Each structure stands twice: as structure tokens, then as C-alpha cells.
Amino acid sequence: MKPLEGIRILDLTRVLSGPFATALLADLGAEIIKIEPPHGDEYRHIGPFRDGESALFTLTNRGKNSVVIDLKAPEGQSLAQQLASQCDVVVENFRPGVAKRLGLGADALRAQKPELVYCSISGFGQDSPEAQLPAFDIVAQAMSGWMDATGEEGGAPLKVGEALGDIAAGLYAVIAILAALIGQKRSGQGATLDVAMLDSLVAMLPTSHAIHMYSDTAIERVGNRHPLSTPFGAFRTKDGQAIIAVLGDRQFKSLCEVIGVPDAATDPRFSTDEIRTQNEPAVRAMIEDWTSLYPTSTVVEKLSEARVPTAPIMTLAEQLASDHAQARALVRDLPHHRLGKSPVVGQPIRFDGKAHLAENGAPSLGGETRAILQEAGLTEAQIAQLISAGVVKEADK
């Protein structure tokens, strides 16, 4: 039995932050009813595509039931309210205020069902002065401190190479929903949850927090090295670069022995982590005098033997082909209505040795409309009338 079997979630989200969250919940066994507009989630129309199917939509909507409802129509709003009353959780990521105007806000839905867990995901929160700003990931990264802390030393700010704001908000939404479900079980009461991309990113900067709030110094971009620990970063090898991540004097001593300068461990310039960071150029020069003599594979091998943390810099393709990825089954195939099978990377947590994954791939647009409405108590005549009126839609045959 999966941990969330028996939990029913109405998913009013689209694009990335919300669908990422509900895909993780689907992996854990929750039943996800994804409400889509007649044209579908915007991600259905964003490439890359395979056989007409969006890769991004396929990856982030596994294990869900697609029900097409026109929420602009009063009948569609009533239908969505009816479905919400039959669910344990509602998740939405509309711009603040939109769900309320549709009759699907937290107050309205929890008035009819107080035990409902209602989670709103947005760029800046429901009550921020910036609440109405467009919630693009790069905007949240720019405002959070992430871009200011990221980039080459002396260079310009850089965004992280993934939509980190969306992913962070999705992860915090999952944490919030699971905590609220535990509270619901204990008290019988639900909760109204407010998750902001910007807040989530700010919360994920502990090193920057330490520098800004405790050392009273400015945060500076340091490229691949660590702002507080040395040696820690990418070092030149004969054919590329190797990562070396030393934390503490014991590991530094081991590193010095491997690279043939054991006396450096007692050099006053390198006596503590803080002093080594102050003298980082000298530490780097000493290490690269050795690493530049060998290919990356040899550097990593020799340091690993001495239990000095190290790694090559791998592409995603190299990692997914690695022994680790194979042993951990990081990529698995799900059955898909058009592709036959769709490779996905599911939630990574193991429960008693098993990493749970949704049973099916992403749904066709409106693929479960009829089945979900029948389960909700609508008659065939009512469903036919709603389809005829364009309020709901089934998948194309």
C-alpha cells in the first residue's frame, strides 16, 4: 500500500510549480483529479515534443486524471465545487484572487467542507504587495538573493540552470499538504496553505543567511568555490576539471598527503578553514600544481582512495547512464496513452526500500472526464448536456 492511498486531490494547477507538487503526491498514491481548460494545461503546448506530446507535460503530470471543465462557465464552477466537496485536498496556482472570483477560493470551499486542506501556490503569496506581479521563475530568482549569490567571482549575477523557484514552491507545497493532512487527522479540521515561490527561494539560502545575518559582511559571488570553506570547488586537471570539497582540518590533512605536500597541513596560512579561505588563491595554486598533472579520472580515483570528497563534473546523460542511476532506478518507464511508454524521474524517497511511482503516465486531455463525473454522481444525460454545452470535454477519439 502506498502512503497516500485513499487521499483524493483536486488539482487546479498548471505549468510547473503545482503540477510538480501533485505529481509527487501521485507517486505516493494520492488520486489526482486534474482540472484543465478546454485548450489544456499550457505545458501541453510547450516543447520539446515527441509524437505530438509535450515532454514537460508528460514528466510533471504522471499518474493524474484529466477532466476538462470550462471554469469560466457558471456550470463549470458549480461542477468544480462539487468535485472539491468530494476531495481531501485542493491545490491551485492561479494568480491571487482568481480562484476566489471563480467561486473556488479557500473560504468558499472550506465553508462547505471545513476539513478540506486547501493549498495556494503563487509567486509572492496571497497578501504580498507584489502579489499581482507575474510569477516567472527568473523574476523570483532575481528578487530572492539567489542570482546575486550565483556567478563567477567578479562576474555578473546568474540564474540557476533550472526553474528552481517553481520546484522549490512545489516541494514546500508537498511538505505543507502532508503536514496539514496529519493535522486534519488529529483535529478534524483542514487548513488554508499559502506557498510563495519567492519565500521558498529565500528559505533555501542558509549559507547566505549565515553571511548576511551573522557575519555582517556582504554576500559575494565566488563561482564554483564555497564562500566559507576552502578548498571547495572545481580544480583544473590535465583534461578538464575535478570537484574537490574539503570540510575541516582532517580532510585537508588527507588532501595534502595525497598531493605530496604533507607539511602544508601545518602551514600557518592554511591552519583553519577560515584562514584557508582568506588565502584561497595560494591553496588553489598548490592543489592545481598536482591536479593539472593527471586526467580527471586519476585525480578522482586517488582522492577517493584517501576519502577526500571529490567527483568529476558529469552531464545529465552521463549520470543517468551511471551505475548509481541504474542501481537506484532513477529513470523508470510508465505506460502512456500515445507514446506507449514514457520515461520519467519520480520522487526519490524510498519507503522500506521501495521508491513509489505513479501507475500511469500523463493523461490525454479530458481522458477521464466521463469517468470522474460519473463517479461524482452525474447521470449520462447530465454529462451529455454538459458536453453539448461545451462546459466539459472528453478526449478526442
From TrEMBL:
Top-level taxonomic group: Bacteria
The protein's name in its UniProt record: CoA transferase
Record InterPro entries: CoA-transferase_III_domain, CoA-Trfase_fam_III, CoA-Trfase_III_dom3_sf, CoA-Trfase_III_dom_1_sf
EC number: 2.8.3.-
Enzyme class at the top of the EC tree: transferase
GO molecular function: CoA-transferase activity
Gene3D superfamilies recorded: Crotonobetainyl-coa:carnitine coa-transferase, domain 1, formyl-coa transferase, domain 3
Keyword line: Transferase
Species in which this protein is naturally found: Celeribacter halophilus
Pfam families per the UniProt record, alphabetical: CoA_transf_3
